[in-house]
Amino acid sequence: MKKDDYQLRRIKPLDPTVVNKIAAGEIIERPENAVKELLENALDAGSTSIEVLLKDGGLKLLQISDNGAGIHYDDLPYLCQRFSTSKLEKFEDLQQIQTFGFRGEALASISHVAKVTITTKREGDLHAWRAFYVDGKLAPTAPHNTSAPQPCAGKQGTVITVEDIFYNVPGRKAALKHANEEYRRILNLMQKYAIHSEKVSFSCKKVGETVASISLSSRLSIKDKIRHVFGTLAVKHLKALKIPEGTINVESFHADGLISSADYEDKKSIFIVFINNRLVESIELKNAIDETYSKFLHKGASYFVYLSLSMKPEQVDVNFHPSKRIVHFLYDHEIIGAISDKLAELLKNTDEQRSFTMQTTIPSITMVKTPELPSQKNKKIYENNMVRTDPREQSIKAMFSSSQKSAALNSDIQHSQSKEVANEETPAESNPSPSPQKAMEDDVREEVEDGIIIPCELESIRQLQNEVLNSMHLLATNILSEHKYVGLVCPNKRIAAIQHNIGLYLVDYGKLAYHFFYQICLTEFANYGKIYMNPPIPLEKILAVSFTDEDVELYQKTRKLLIARRDMLNEYFSIEISAEGFLSALPCLSKGYKPFVNRLPLFLKGISPDYVDWLDERACLEGVMKALAKFYVPIRLLPDNATSEEISYMERILEEFFFPEFRRRLICPKELFEQMAIFQVASLPRLYTVFERC
After folding, report:
1. Where is the composition biased (Polar residues) (predicted)?
2. CB 520 within 8 Å of CB 667
C-alpha cells in the first residue's frame, strides 16, 4: 500500500455487528467451548441432571437440557445481550465470584455465530416459554411471526438448542477438524465435569443413537465414575491425595484428589484440575506434576491426576482469560510446592512396594535370581490365581475388517429372521400357525429412521427407573461389567459362558437380554428409532396369528384399543398405527440388533387388555415396555431344527453385540442372581486342585 493511501485512511469505530463477531471468536473457538459455557450455566442453575445431544460433533446441532431453576420470562429479552448477567453489579464483585458464569458473554457470543432456541420453565409456571435468538436479539422463527417468546409445553428447567454453529463465519468452520474429533473433545470435557460433580447426572449422545456415549449417574462415587470412563485398571492404581486446611500458610486452602501410583500404565497421561469447582488449566502446576513423576517413572510413562483445589475466591483471578479456561491465583509457589511434596511422598511409598518379573533371553541358560524384598514375597501370586485374560483385549475376530464383519452379520440376520419360532416358554408366546405368519413376513421391510431426540420425562418413568437402580445386585453387575466372553454353550436353553477374574460362569443370556432391553426402554423412553413396514401391515393379519377362534371378543377389543391409543403409542413407543388399522412402524431400540419379525403377533398379544392395564399410567407404560423387551429377546434355537447358519449367527451376535453391551451398560437386578441366571461353575484354583489329585 502506498504512503498516500495510508494518509487517507482514518480511524473510526467498528460496526457493532463486527465487534460482536470478533468478541464471539474469543469466547467460542469450537463447539467444545459452547458446551462448556452452557454446561456451567446449567450447573449454576442448580441442575442435578444434564443431557447433551449432538449432531456432526455439535456443528449441525448442539442441545443441552437441564432440570435447573429455569429463566424468568422478563429476563428473556436480555438473555443473549452482551454483558447482561445476574452475577455481577459492580467490578468489585469479581473478587467474590463463586459461580461459573459472570460476564454475560456466553449466550451472547453463541447467538452471534449460531441460531439459538431456548425453552425454559420455572417452578410454579403454568407452561414453558420458547424464544429464538439471532445476533444477540430475539427474532421470529418464521417471516411475519412475532419475535416475542411464545408459550409452549415443557418441563422444569432449560433446553438450549444451538444450530449451524459458525454458519456466518465460514473461515472458522473450515478450520475445524472432523466432526468425530469435535465429538471426542466434547465427550472428554463432559467426562471431567461428571467425575468432579458428585450430585449431578450427565449423559451425552449423538442424534439418532439409542445408546448414550456417556451416561454417569449422580449416585456413583468419584472412583466409580473414573472406572466407567477410564476402566478398572485405572482405578486399581489410584491413591487418595489430601492436603487439609492449615497444612501450608495459605488461608482457607485445602486440596483433595486422586493420583496414580508408579504401577499405573496407559497410553497417555490424564490431568484434571478444578479450582473452586471450576475446570481450569494451570501450566505451572502441570509442569510440577510432570517433574515429580519423572523422578519415579521411566521416560514417556503416563499418569492419572485428578485434583480439586479450594481457596478463597479473592485469591483467584477468574477474569484472566476470555474463555475462563486459564486462571491465576495467589500463593501459587506455596500451593504447587505442597502438592508436589505430597505427590512425591505417595509415590515414594508405592515405589518401594513395586515388583518386576525378569526372564533371560535364552531359556536354556540358568536363571539369575534377584533378591526379593519381604513385601514382594508376601505379594507373590501363584499360577493358579493368575487371571489369564483381560475383558479389553482384542480377540482374533476383532482383527477382521469392519466391512467383512458387517456383510457376514447382515447375511446371517436376513437368513435367521426368515425362520419360524417355536417352543417359547412364556405364556404369551404360543406357536403361531405358519401360513399367515409367512404371509406377514413377506410384507415386512425394515428401515431405521434417525431423528432429533426430544426430552420426555414422566413421574411414573422416574419411579420405574429408580426401581431398577434400587434393585441392582452389585456383585452380579460388577461381574458383567468386567467379564470376558467365552462362547455359546446351549442355544436351546440360551446359555453362554463368560469369565470374570479367575472364575468361569454360565449365564442365561435370554434373561439378561430381557432386562437389558427393558432398561433401554426406560432410559430412552419416547426417543426410540423406528423400523418401517413397507407396505404397512393390517392389524387383522397380525392378530389373526395371535388369537384363536375362541378369542374373537378379545381380538376385536385389542384391535379397537390399539387404534384408539395410536397417538400415545406413536409418541411414547414409536409404534405407528393408522386410523384404518394398518401398522406402519415399530420401535428400534438398537441399530446393532433387530427383533425377529415373526414374533410380532406375540408382541401385540402381549399388550392386549388381558396382559396390560391400560387404565393406569404406570402399569400401562411398564406393561408395554416389558412386552417390547420380550419382543427383542433372542429366540431359542431348537436342537432338531437349528441350522449351522442360525447357530453361527447367534454366536456372532452374542459376541459382537449382546455381551459388549451387557458389559457397558446393563444393571443386573437381584432377581437374576437369585434365579441363578449367573452361576459360577468353576474357578482356576479348584481346577488346579482337581488336576493335582489326578
Report:
1. 407-416
2. no
- Show the beta-strand stretches assigned E in 276-345: 278-279, 304-310, 316-317, 328-329
Residue 429, SS3?
coil
Flag the least confident range among 291-300, 373-382, 586-595: 373-382
108 with 130, same domain: the answer is: yes
Top pLDDT among 640 and 596 is at 596
The pTM is what?
0.50
At 416, the pLDDT band (50, 70, 90 cuts) reads very low
* Mean pLDDT in residue range 135-151: 85
- Phi-psi map region of 277: left, alpha, beta (phi>0 left; psi -120 to 50 alpha): left
**Residue 151 and residue 257 share a domain:** no
Q: How far is CA 364 from CA 357, 361, 468, in A?
A: 18, 9, 58
The pLDDT of residue 19: 53
Residue 468 lies in a domain: yes
Q: For residue 692, what pLDDT band results from cuts at 50, 70 and 90?
A: low
Query: Closest Cα partner for 346 from 407, 305, 374, 401?
Result: 305
Task: Answer for the pair 225, 195: CB distance below 8 angstroms, yes or no.
Answer: yes
Q: How many Cβ atoms are within 10 Å of 290's Cβ, its own excluded? A: 14
Alpha helices in 203-331 (DSSP H): 222-230, 232-236, 283-294
Is the alpha carbon torsion for 492, 493, 494, 498 positive or negative? negative
CB burial readout 412-424, b (16+ within 10 A) else e: bbeebbebebeeb
CA distance 593 to 586: 14
Q: What is the extent of the structural domain holding 655?
A: 397-680
Please identify, among 190, 214, 238, the residue that sits at the C-terminal boundary of a domain.
214
pLDDT digit string, tens, across residues 24-58: 455 678 889 889 888 988 988 889 999 999 999 99
